[in-house]
Amino acid sequence: MTTKLYYKIGEVAKLLEEEVSTIRFWSDTFPAWVKPERNAKGNRLFHPEDVDNLRLIHYLTRVEGLTLDGVARKLDENRDGLSHKREIVEKLYTIRSLLVDLHENI
After folding, report:
1. For residue 35, what pLDDT is reported?
2. Which pLDDT belongs to residue 80?
3. What burial letters (b/e) apply to 61-87, b meaning 16+ CB within 10 Å?
4. Which end of the chain is more exposed for a tag (fewer CB within 10 A), N or C?
5. Which of 38, 35, 60 is nearest to 47 (CA)?
């Protein structure tokens, strides 16, 4: 992913394959971790750090199956360890996808 100064909410939703409303909800639910700025129109603009935190929230809710309270606890306890684990899981999903594609093309 190319690092930008800001990401629009639609861009973040597309990156995470989530609905815009979900990104908005997570942004409102985790203000200590996701702090978007607003432009003159009031649209949310997310910093790369916000996007990273939203990726963690996505991972914890969708992959780990945690509740919102569980996500908040995990973020407070060990954010760096979670980031590393999420990166590993994403790489494994990528490898799996490549293997499935290879199998289908044989």
Report:
1. 95
2. 64
3. beeeebeeeebbebbeeeeeebeebbe
4. C
5. 35
* Contact by Cβ (8 Å): 65, 59: no
Q: What is the pLDDT of residue 106?
A: 81
Measured CA to CA, the distance from residue 60 to residue 100 in angstroms comes to: 25
Q: List all residues 6 or more positions away from 12 whose beta carbon is below 8 Å from its beta carbon.
A: 23, 46, 50, 51, 54
| CA-to-CA separations, 97 to 12, 18, 25, 75, in angstroms, rounded | 22, 19, 29, 28
Q: What is the pTM of this model?
A: 0.76
Regions of the chain short of the pLDDT cut 50: none
What pLDDT does residue 2 have?
A: 59
